[in-house]
Design goal:
It contains 15 helices and ten strands. By secondary structure, the protein is of the alpha+beta class.
Length: about 375
């Protein structure tokens, strides 16, 4: 007699949002081949593809703390991997539920992998900015960057603007950036670059090509940017987008998804390459050449299989391999794609076929 297979969770006292979760529909045979669609604009990387930033601009960006992201460059993301991770993301606990425990992205991951500060002032906006009209935002944009788009199509709503006109304006400014360029123009140029970085890399939205002009508030004083907790803002934004994407009705996902891409053990660099210390994401880029102009779309069922069949021994091996490298992870934290706490969890088995074939994951 076959034992009934329960997909989990047994108790919904905590996991109260299971009804509209993607895992429920996958268990019922739906969404089996649906990969979440990538939503991130490449205007910044397209602009930098065949251009080198002048040292004066690079110096200003280094002072803001964001030059590390530009140095790392565009990271190739595998959207099948991102999809299966989000299928296990629980908005109630902000963790991934896996057979070996719960995993989540931590502030330490953001700081160590990408060098974004996690200490400092809270990223917030004046209440008055919520009620500004598009005319006020355009005036503010012109005052801070010297740029004002002529086409109304470049605007979306009262506070968002397309990235492409900004990139096109930077292409016009770039040849004029020299050693003799006035400091005001260098500042304008730097602010426009940061808008591309915010809208296309760190805080992308499902429109794929829009940036919020509310970021102008923080771009007024570039010298104060390092004092904000940008890592916390990026992480919180990604949490929110994953909570949205885990719903079965959603087809898109956005946010700084390269945070989910890296897993230990970190790759060994060739003898000719000096090992970078921080940010550690450089190691994957240097060794595995993830700096590519296109994204990967690998086998979705295969990734589901790999996560469904994870065992505790694999997590322990990951800890040992991490501990022998130059960056020592705390013993109580097991890193899978980020920090994984070694505790049992009432995880959801994704597919019926898997649960039937592997008694270890039956409930």
């Amino acid at each position: 007699m076959d034992v009934p297979i329960h997909p989990g969770p047994y108790s919904r006292e905590l996991l109260v949002l299971q009804g509209d979760h993607r895992s429920t529909h996958i268990w019922d045979g739906e969404l089996l081949s649906q990969t979440l669609r990538a939503r991130r604009g490449d205007d910044l990387w397209n602009f930098l593809h065949d251009r080198v930033l002048h040292e004066r601009v690079a110096h200003r960006l280094q002072a803001t703390g964001f030059y590390r992201i530009i140095e790392i460059g565009r990271i190739q993301v595998d959207w099948a991997l991102i999809t299966v991770l989000i299928e296990r993301w629980r908005p109630e606990t902000h963790t991934f539920h896996l057979p070996i425990g719960e995993a989540t992205v931590t502030l330490q991951d953001v700081e160590v992998l990408y060098g974004l500060p996690v200490d400092g002032m809270t990223f917030s906006l004046p209440i008055a900015m919520r009620y500004m009209s598009f005319v006020h935002y355009l005036d503010m944009l012109h005052q801070l960057t010297g740029f004002r788009p002529q086409e109304k199509a470049a605007l979306s709503g009262a506070s968002r603007m397309a990235l492409t006109p900004i990139r096109q304006h930077l292409e016009l400014l770039h040849p004029d950036i020299t050693d003799d360029t006035e400091e005001e123009h260098i500042t304008h140029y730097t602010r426009l670059l940061l808008l591309l970085l915010f809208g296309g890399v760190l805080f992308p939205n499902t429109s794929e090509n829009l940036v919020s002009l509310r970021f102008l508030h923080h771009l007024q004083l570039l010298d104060e940017l390092p004092y904000y907790s940008w890592g916390a803002a990026v992480l919180g934004y990604m949490y929110r987008q994953m909570c949205r994407a885990r719903m079965a009705t959603q087809r898109d996902v956005c946010g700084f998804m390269p945070l989910l891409q890296f897993q230990p053990p970190r790759p060994q660099l060739p003898p000719t390459v000096a090992p970078p210390f921080l940010p550690l994401s450089r190691r994957w880029v240097l060794c595995r050449r993830l700096l590519r102009e296109y994204d990967a779309h690998h086998n979705l069922p295969l990734f589901r299989d790999v996560l469904d069949l994870l065992e505790g021994a694999q997590a322990e091996r990951d800890v040992d391999m991490v501990a022998t490298d130059d960056y020592i992870q705390e013993p109580e934290e097991i890193v899978v794609s980020t920090g994984l706490t070694a505790s049992s969890t009432d995880h959801v088995s994704i597919t019926k076929d898997h649960a039937a074939a592997h008694p270890a994951i039956r409930r």
